[in-house]
Inverse folding.
């Protein structure tokens, strides 16, 4: 028998299978290595370097997400060298754009000036739209980093707000590439990629056109994976704060894929939808309908009271009156013309439970098998 | 689906036909695209429109409308002729091979080319690619079923998969993609005229007796009832007097709408239960406001037979009520007590009368859904069907001949029309058209036409045209696109104001009762 391969992480000897990265082994053993650009189901890119670890014998720190585990390898995940490197990486990201959350800096004059300039860029005087729901902010807290003392570079690109669903705020982009991977490797819509060079790097569509004039299909996968406030749902931006919502897991009501999603509810209204990661069939993916097509729930055109036709017109009525009328009319028609003079159309839109009850109603109460639905139409 | 969605990534050849996958099942299409990009799977797309997924295909075949049986027979002809089929599977798991062989004998690639317009060499290549796979998956949607020959088309695809032994294995299967979220569930639950839950036939005396006991009633009807496509004509003829329509909008989704509209007006009594004032609700005598998915508890069964939870997140508006509660209340007033107080109560009753759902419970599917059949509490569910044998023992090959679509283009109606959906809208649009963003992307109906036909009829982009068929006329704007094939236009049916189904043919598949939405003959002229 082949001998077990093993790697040592923070002094623990751990077995691994060929092909696993240091990050994979650590995850499996609940050893927390922080990541930022790493995206499940995509090839590790190693661009952000937040996950660097110290490997005995290696000259440089190595990204845990992209380094394969090897036999006899010894790894330190939070050594002084590692922490120092992570702090620098985080500091550079923080100073690279409009990261105006509480973590950014404490020097008052500097902060005030910065805050005012962000307000101008953003046309809003609140803290960053994803404040409290940001990977970069979490990391900055964890490693006690602020952007104090570093010069803030202005962002060369204006915000893109011309499509109905997604705001692209390049001033908050940390160029982790998660959106690019989500678009190309997960949803395979191939709408965006890295563009331009070095300090002018930008995530662009071919020709750097707005998303609405590109191959983008507004699946919103890029928004869901963006770790910072660079990509945010237009309607939720500065409007929905994570701490104000309750999330309810349910099934999408559009097509038969049955994607698992979270409805974000605030004050009794659905204000945002995200894909439920870790649940098949979609593992977090959604399409434009599932993610952005929820306005109908709270539409003012919803029916709210029973209606009864009187003198040719539908007029509001009470439930009792309406239900009695339906029961009485169906009863009479059944008596006069037989059960098969009545038909029930149930629906591919309502639940299994309701479909069951509808056919039971047709069969056991009306006594007809005239029951069908329009789904094949 | 016989297999799961995740299974698609395990196929080394994927054959997609009659499914505009990226627009109608976007998240599922990502599985296909990933398989092609990252797993080296081969993709064959057969579709009359050059849809987006065709851009990912290794082979794209473009058949004339309504010629599916012919090209499928053509593939099988080549596979049998060149001895590329799975002898082992055919010998041990199937019957009727000789009949099939005889039927497909005459479907030589050159004969098929004449019928379908697909080049003979393409038929040869596609046959070799599919049959040469270790395991191949077939995905299809309404482009296959919405024909007078819909049942034949589906059987033909099953023939093809069986011939190559691609059933009952991971990465294989014949996989219908369900258009609406709970089509699978509506069928599973007996929302069909001939079966109770779990496809238990109403004509079976034993099953009827079982349901009578479970429901504490006597005299359940013993003959199958009317399909929706027969209810409408029955209403027209005055045989059907009343309809109770729950969550459907047949006055946009039905074929030959002008006829359907008259039929509904002819009813003595129409009850519509819905979340919006739909075109159908406007004709009702009583309209009952119900809850939408975000306001209710329950389950949906997705296209891969996975039963998943629906959870209440918000309260319904005004006095709107759960559909189940409304049905139970009417029932009580008609003298029958459903005896349930929650969605879960109903699910428990479903389990008792439905062997394939018996092992599923709310607690078991709290985190992840289960695939039926799941007969017992500790059964893991069945992601892949027909593993050891088919539900009826052996798989039966059917020799099927091609029949032309019901309506042909002629001098008066020189173009073919096919209908379908777009990414940004859903079904009759009652839900999606409430989102400004979705409307901004696709604000109104359009006619997709090939550049050649646009030239021929002297029409430029955006111009308004009247489209007429033998049944009606609508007006919409021209959208010139390479997706369209010469001689065929495409119109999405979502839009009530330019309802494509005013044009479509109500001619039915004799077995499934599904209308031929995908083919009818029309004329085009510049609108006045
Ligand atoms: S919304 Fe979807 S298609 Fe558009 S850029 Fe983002 S990931 Fe790509
Ligand atoms: S937009 Fe967001 S996900 Fe994309 S590169 Fe920038 S920070 Fe990363
Ligand atoms: S999110 Fe899109 S793909 Fe998923 S179930 Fe909903 S409509 Fe279908």
């Amino acid at each position: 028998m082949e001998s077990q391969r093993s790697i040592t992480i923070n002094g623990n000897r751990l077995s691994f299978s060929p092909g696993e990265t240091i990050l994979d082994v650590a995850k499996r053993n609940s050893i927390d290595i922080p990541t930022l650009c790493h995206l499940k189901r995509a090839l590790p890119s190693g661009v952000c370097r937040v996950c660097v670890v110290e490997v005995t014998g290696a000259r440089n720190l190595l990204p845990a997400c992209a380094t394969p585990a090897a036999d006899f390898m010894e790894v330190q995940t939070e050594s002084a060298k590692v922490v120092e490197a992570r702090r620098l990486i985080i500091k550079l990201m923080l100073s690279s754009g409009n990261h105006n959350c509480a973590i950014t800096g404490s020097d008052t004059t500097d902060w005030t000036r910065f805050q005012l300039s962000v307000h101008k860029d953003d046309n809003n005087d609140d803290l960053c739209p994803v404040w409290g729901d940001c990977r970069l902010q979490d990391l900055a807290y964890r490693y006690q980093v602020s952007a104090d003392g570093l010069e803030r570079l202005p962002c060369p690109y204006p915000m893109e707000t011309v499509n109905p669903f997604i705001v692209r705020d390049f001033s908050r982009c940390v160029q982790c590439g998660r959106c690019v991977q989500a678009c190309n490797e997960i949803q395979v819509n191939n709408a965006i990629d890295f563009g331009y060079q070095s300090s002018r790097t930008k995530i662009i569509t071919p020709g750097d056109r707005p998303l609405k004039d590109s191959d983008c299909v507004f699946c919103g996968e890029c928004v869901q994976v963006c770790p910072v406030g660079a990509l945010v749902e237009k309607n939720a931006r500065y409007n929905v704060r994570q701490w104000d919502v309750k999330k309810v897991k349910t099934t999408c009501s559009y097509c038969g894929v049955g994607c698992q999603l979270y409805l974000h509810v605030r004050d009794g209204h659905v204000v945002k939808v995200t894909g439920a990661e870790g649940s098949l069939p979609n593992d977090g993916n959604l399409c434009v309908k599932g993610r952005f097509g929820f306005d109908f729930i709270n539409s003012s055109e919803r029916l709210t009271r029973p209606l009864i036709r009187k003198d040719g017109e539908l007029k509001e009525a009470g439930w009792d009156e309406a239900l009695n009328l339906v029961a009485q009319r169906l009863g009479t028609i059944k008596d006069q013309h037989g059960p098969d003079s009545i038909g029930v159309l149930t629906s591919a839109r309502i639940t299994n439970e309701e479909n069951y009850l509808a056919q039971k109603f047709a069969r056991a109460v009306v006594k007809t098998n005239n029951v069908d639905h329009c789904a094949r139409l | 689906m016989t297999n799961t969605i995740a299974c698609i990534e395990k196929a080394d050849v994927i054959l997609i036909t009659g499914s505009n996958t990226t627009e109608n099942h976007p998240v599922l299409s990502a599985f296909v695209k990933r398989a092609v990009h990252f797993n080296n799977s081969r993709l064959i797309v057969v579709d009359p429109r050059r849809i987006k997924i065709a851009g990912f295909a290794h082979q794209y075949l473009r058949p004339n409308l309504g010629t599916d049986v012919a090209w499928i027979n053509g593939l099988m002809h080549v596979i049998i002729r060149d001895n590329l089929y799975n002898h082992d599977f055919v010998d041990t798991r199937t019957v009727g091979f000789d009949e099939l062989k005889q039927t497909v004998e005459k479907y030589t690639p050159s004969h098929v080319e004449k019928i379908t317009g697909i080049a003979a060499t393409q038929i040869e290549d596609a046959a070799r690619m599919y049959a040469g796979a270790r395991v191949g998956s077939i995905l299809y949607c309404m482009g296959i079923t919405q024909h007078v020959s819909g049942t034949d088309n589906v059987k033909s695809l099953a023939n093809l998969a069986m011939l190559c032994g691609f059933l009952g294995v991971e990465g294989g299967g014949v996989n219908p993609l369900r258009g609406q979220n709970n089509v699978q569930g509506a069928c599973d639950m007996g929302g069909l005229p001939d079966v109770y839950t779990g496809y238990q036939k109403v004509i079976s005396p034993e099953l009827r007796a079982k349901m009578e006991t479970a429901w504490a009633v006597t005299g359940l009807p013993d003959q199958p009832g009317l399909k929706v496509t027969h209810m409408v004509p029955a209403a027209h003829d005055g045989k059907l007097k009343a309809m109770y329509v729950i969550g459907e909008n047949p006055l946009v989704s039905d074929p030959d709408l002008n006829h359907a509209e008259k039929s509904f007006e002819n009813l003595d009594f129409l009850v519509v239960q819905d979340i919006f004032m739909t075109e159908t609700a406007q004709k009702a005598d009583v309209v009952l406001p119900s809850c939408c998915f975000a306001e209710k508890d329950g389950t949906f069964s997705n296209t891969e037979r996975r039963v998943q939870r629906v959870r209440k997140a918000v309260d319904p508006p005004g006095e709107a009520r759960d559909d189940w509660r409304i049905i139970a209340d009417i029932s009580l007033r008609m003298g029958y007590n459903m005896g349930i107080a929650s969605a879960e109560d109903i699910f428990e009753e479903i389990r008792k009368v439905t062997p394939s759902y018996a092992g599923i419970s709310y607690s078991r599917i709290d985190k992840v859904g289960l695939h039926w059949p799941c007969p017992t509490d500790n059964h893991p569910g069945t992601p892949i069907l027909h593993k050891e044998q088919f539900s009826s023992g052996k798989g039966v090959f059917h020799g099927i001949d091609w029949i032309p679509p019901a309506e042909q283009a002629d001098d008066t109606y020189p173009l073919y029309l096919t209908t379908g959906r777009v990414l940004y809208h859903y079904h009759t649009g009652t839900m999606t058209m409430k989102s400004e963003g979705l409307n901004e992307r696709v604000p109104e109906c359009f006619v997709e036409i090939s550049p050649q036909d646009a030239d021929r009829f002297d029409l430029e982009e955006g111009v308004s045209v009247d489209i007429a068929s033998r049944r009606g006329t609508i007006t919409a704007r021209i959208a010139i696109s390479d997706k369209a094939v010469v001689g065929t236009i495409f119109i999405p049916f979502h839009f009530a104001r330019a309802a494509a189904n005013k044009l479509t043919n109500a001619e039915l598949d004799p077995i499934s009762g599904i209308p031929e939405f995908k083919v009818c003959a029309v004329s085009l002229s510049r609108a006045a």
In short: Chain B touches chain A through 153 residues (CB under 8 Å). The longest strand of chain B covers residues 473-480. Residues 75 and 127 of chain B are 5 Å apart (CA to CA). Chain B has three domains: 6-177, 183-371, 415-526.
